[in-house]
Structures
1.
Amino acid sequence: QLLEISLHRAIKQHNFQEFEVYYQPIVDIASGKIIAAESLLRWHSPELGMVTPGEFIPLAESTGLIVPMGKWVLKRVCEQIKIWRDAGINSLSITVNLSVIEFNQPDFIQKIIYFINANDLEPHYLELELTESMIMQDINSAIATMNKLQSLGVKIAIDDFGTGYSSLIYLKNLPINTLKIDRYFIHNVANDPQKSAITKALIQMADNLNLHVVAEGVETEAELAFLRQHHCSAIQGFLFSRPLPAAEFENFLLTNK
Ligand code: G
Ligand code: G
Ligand code: MN
Ligand code: NA
């Protein structure tokens, strides 16, 4: 109840001032370079302290506040892409997590077009993260929206891959660019024969489908070594960096060139 009142106030009265978008680097294994970042929303509430998205996103979804919240995230991320591009920090795409409610809004595509145009962005610098379950909820309508996004040049990633239930037949026909292997499989992958087998198969499959593949939740050198050995293209995780506020991410970027 308190959470709901605070969330409502933070959005409607305080106009998102308590919110901040963090960025977690995504690193190409072969070159060691940062090629992208995932945007992750944070809420510093004056009365509740730091509230995690795991707590406030479900509430935002059940109250419909996810719609203005998602719009604000898209706006901030598109502005940030422009700022980094104008600062000469090029060729970095930023991923945005979406809730199925936002994705299903009738004006979702219009919002995307608006923020791309307002910031004069090359659309491929924006990548949207969808989960298998979001797509499977209404596969035909999801594919139609995904096709529109791809025709604009916006990229699409499947998040938490391996935990859903999409069949390979569907995957083959989906307009997607990237698979993000869920961190469950990556945790201790080098020493767990089942996880090793599944992760190898997922990397192989992504390769066969010509998809970019990102391993999430990489925390140890052993996990990285395994992923390098099996030709995973990119990693994300605490081993390299936690999600960082924009200014810290920018510093990290400049020292890791
Ligand atoms: O960053 P963290 O691990 O706390 O994120 C927890 C969950 O919240 C993740 O599943 C992530 O996808 C989700 N999340 C983080 N930021 C956003 C956002 O801007 N929009 C949506 N819809 N989900 C987000
Ligand atoms: O569901 P999604 O993949 O969007 O969630 C991303 C979440 O994973 C973020 O909340 C982020 O903080 C978290 N995360 C990122 N790297 C790591 C990691 O190396 N280990 C763990 N445990 N969580 C991570
Ligand atoms: Mn994600
Ligand atoms: Na994930």
2.
Amino acid sequence: MKNSIVLIGFMGSGKTTFGKILSERHHYQFMDTDDLIMKKENMPITEIFKTKGEDYFRQLETDVLKELTHKNDKMILSTGGGMILKQENVALMKSIGTVVYLKASPHTLANRLKNDTTRPLLKGKNKFLFIKDLLAKRKDYYEKGADVIIKTDEKNIQDILKEIEGYL
Ligand code: S3P
């Protein structure tokens, strides 16, 4: 039987990239909570943060997760990096599928995000220091919320894909 996978992890951990590749390869539906929120609000995430605030965005995250729990199709779901902050969200994600944490170091994440302009939380910050601090605050949430932890530093893409595939 097919199993749905919910990918969690910090911004830049590869949730969307790996999720898209795997869903095409295995004919799963690909879903991304940020995309669903942007469609719902008809504006980019940066704009939602700017005009409506982070709390409003966090409520939308829970709303879209709730909607996804009603879907019967097996899916690979990429979630926003802050999705694990609410216990309610963790329970919803676990009801959707196996929760896989793509773990990466601040160094790796800062490198992947160095040219990013789409993440409001990173705007105007020293990326490495900001990521290091925020990751330290969120580390336990990711690790406790996960069913499986996959370390991605210094691994090639194919090896990471293979590890995730073990849970499909
Ligand atoms: C956020 C991560 C982003 C997006 C928003 C907030 C966070 O998603 O949901 O900018 O709090 O870590 P990605 O992890 O897909 O970048």
3.
Amino acid sequence: MLGPVILAASRSDQMRRFVSAAPGTKQVVDRFIAGETVDQVVPIITDAADKGLEVTLDVVGEDITTPEQAAAARDAYLELIERLKDLGLGAKAEMSVKLSMFGQALEGGHELALANVRPVVIAAAAIGTTVTLDAEDHTTLDSMFAIHEELRKDFPQTGCVIQSYLFRTEEDARRLAAAGSRVRIVKGAYKEPAEVAYQDKAEIDKAYVRIMRILMEGDGYPMIGSHDPRLISIAQELAHRAGRKLDEYEFQMLYGIRSDEHLRLAAEGHRMRVYTAYGTDWYGYFMRRLAEKPANLLFFARSILTK
Ligand code: FDA
């Protein structure tokens, strides 16, 4: 019951101010956010590489309100890519981007987001890596898929995310399970209405399995984004049945969640990519992590009350 309330709060400016200023917040935020600056995240990337893990980097931010903020978001990614190039880490680190941070919701936002994300995709390709477009709420997805298709004309390795809680996703998965495509499947982290999305956890999980099967049996590169042990073992079984080798799909999990599992899967020979978020505009990302697990909220409340 708490999840939808927290997700509603994730869009409230008043709550943003309260949570950001509360004593004790930082301690909990640090569990999910790898740092505020590129300098702080670099040791985390190198440490992950030393442990046999790969990363996808998210400069946190979303729902910006001016074209200048969108340009600043683009520049933050370009700075990150420049740093990865200097460090020779291009092959180990991909980028994940939210198009709302690149101006998608502003007037003329579809074109603006495409214009801002393109230089990031070009810069990523120049250092031997790629970009995945995160999935945000359902109203943004037609635009996201159109931008994805446009980018793939020149950069076919550009990835995108699909969410099993949405009714539309099986059809999207069939379209996307084509040669050369890279698709991350997740359950979905936004508050969606019953007209477009399953509300029941069991239905979301069943849809996840159906979609994984489509991706594993297809010709693309499936990226399994989940911490759910049951879905991870089903993914392994489906990959085996589809005759996929270990380097023909990958697992992805979030920084700070089930870190022992990251290492276990990597040790088994799987490609394991840790979604590593950093930056100062962490509020929306943080609140979605709280919504996913009520115990996080208790931990958060306790850390505020004990400060
Ligand atoms: P589930 O929520 O059932 O969790 C399984 C277990 O994992 C829990 O029992 C718990 O042990 C642990 N766990 C999960 N979440 C936790 C948390 N926040 N804190 C502590 N423990 C937790 N969503 C989206 O809408 N668009 C996107 O682009 C992305 N991108 C993305 C990338 C990657 C790499 C991952 C792993 C996830 C996303 N998501 C996302 C988020 C996704 O939609 C979903 O909300 C979370 O992954 C939680 O779902 P699980 O599949 O982990 O299962």
